[in-house]
Amino acid sequence: MAPCLSFFFLFLFAFSAIPANSLPTFFPGAAYQSLIKQAKISKPKLPFKTHYFPQTLDHFTFQPKSSKLFYQKYLINSDYWRKGAPIFVYTGNEGNIEWFAANTGFMLDIAPKFKALLVFIEHRFYGKSMPFGKDSYQSAKTLGYLNSQQALADFAVLITSLKQNLSSEASPVVVFGGSYGGMLAAWFRLKYPHIAIGALASSAPILQFDKLIPWSSFYDAVSQDFKDVSLNCYQVIKGSWAELEAMSTQKQALAELSKTFRTCKSLHSTASARDWLWTAFVYTSMVNYPTKADFMKPLPAYPVQKMCKIIDKIPSGATKLSRAFAAASLYYNYSRSENCFKIEHEVDGHGLHGWDWQTCTEMVMPMTCSKESMFPPSGFDYEEFAEQCQMKYGVSPRPHWITTEFGGERIQKVLKRFGSNIIFSNGMQDPWSRGGVLKNISSSIISLVTEKGAHHVDFRSATKKDPKWLIQLRKQEVEIIQKWLNEYYADL
Ligand SMILES: *[C@@H]1O[C@H](CO)[C@@H](O)[C@H](O)[C@H]1NC(C)=O
Ligand SMILES: *[C@@H]1O[C@H](CO)[C@@H](O)[C@H](O)[C@H]1NC(C)=O
Ligand SMILES: *[C@@H]1O[C@H](CO)[C@@H](O)[C@H](O)[C@H]1NC(C)=O
């Protein structure tokens, strides 16, 4: 039976080398690669200056080696800033910081109104911020310094130093983050309230841990997106896996399959075809944006609808598998520029697999596929997962650490009496929304939920085609941030 792939998207998706029962990442490795490549190719000139900050390797011990420094990259835009005005900081995610800066046009859009300084900080062990250079991913000895608490402390130290250098200690700081970066932004506000006056956490699945939500939530939500468009569409995709599974793995059958899937090279197994389809459906549901976008890949507005249109239009004489393939092709070939599909992806040789380490240590987000989902039913076998992590890195996951360190149990009651000034925004099209905070907690810990929103849609640059609900959502976020700032300046 096909395993339930793990995509942690926080953008977390990664088809990692962990074969079964692994965790979804915000970036499935394959898609991640292509998006990095894409970010490089179609990189618009970003209005930021690049800086490097000498950062401490280990904030939490005083062993001699913990004081080693590494260079942490950050980006700055000071076009609108004047001394004393707010500093808006993006708390970087599991990837190259330019990519997040390019996809968080919202902060650039609102900077003039607030005369804000914009700072995008790269997360340690990603992009150029490698504590041990090329050897950073070598083993647990180096990777051991990659975790969310060190990352939050990096942000705290860097922000403090920056304010000193600008002689603007009184500037209020608001942190912004999407996906894993959104989790970090929310946690940063809770851990470092003396450094950030508030946090906007977009699509931050801080409840995707332990047993806080049903493990089937993520894939049920993906399935719901397709079912909401058309029952037939959902049924065709659901039925396609068995057709794939039934194909023999003999050379000739694989050659047939390679033809159907228009692969560049003949397939070695049916599993890669399955992962390829899987990735297309999961990512498309995450980025089911109301306007044309190019986040993971170029896609039209409401791409789930477009995929289902493709499926529904094909006569029912065609196999379910061929119809699912046609739909998935929208994801891989909306640019119409692919001559063939590279279904068996190259292995990442550039050390972009940091998220994989994070899922094997603290970011354990169990996911299963229920019978109601459009994916083959499967469970989450923790023992097997832990064994794979042992094999790969020689470490054992700590599945309860995140909830111990940051909380999550009874979050409504806990945060009602503790904490303030956090916006959790979620779009229900995004499967990660099910691990988000979907209810208001207090008068200043606010949940903004949009029925048609997708993965941190609010962070995208405004466009003329934005629907009313999206304009309204951003307006409400700006008003809330303005209120925090007013209160801060009034208290000064
Ligand atoms: C602040 O200035 C010091 C001394 O020049 C420098 O080492 C440090 O990197 C600066 N901080 C930031 C955040 O750029
Ligand atoms: C991609 O789209 C173009 C234009 O429709 C088409 O000619 C090409 O065959 C497609 N590629 C694949 C691999 O299906
Ligand atoms: C939370 O409160 C705000 C008003 O402060 C409201 O606009 C929003 O819809 C509420 N969120 C939820 C999930 O009910």
Topology:
Layout: H1 29-41, E1 49-56, E2 69-77, E3 87-91, H2 97-102, H3 105-114, E4 117-121, H4 140-143, H5 148-165, E5 173-178, H6 180-191, E6 198-202, H7 217-229, H8 231-246, H9 251-260, H10 270-286, E7 293-294, E8 298-299, H11 303-313, H12 320-333, H13 354-361, H14 382-393, H15 401-406, H16 411-416, E9 422-427, E10 445-450, H17 468-491
Parallel strand pairs: 3-4, 3-5, 5-6, 6-9, 9-10
Antiparallel strand pairs: 1-2, 2-4, 7-8
Helix pairs in contact: 7-8, 7-10, 8-11, 8-12, 10-12, 11-12
Bound molecules: 2-acetamido-2-deoxy-beta-D-glucopyranose (NAG) (3 copies).
Please give the order of strands in the largest beta sheet.
1-2-4-3-5-6-9-10
Unreliable spans: 7-25, 27-41, 346-351
Text of the CATH class of the domain at 48-213 and 353-364 and 399-492:
Alpha Beta
Task: Give the topology string: H per helix, E per strand.
Answer: HEEEHHEHHEHEHHHHEEHHHHHHEEH
Beta percentage is: 5-15%
Overall, the morphology is: globular
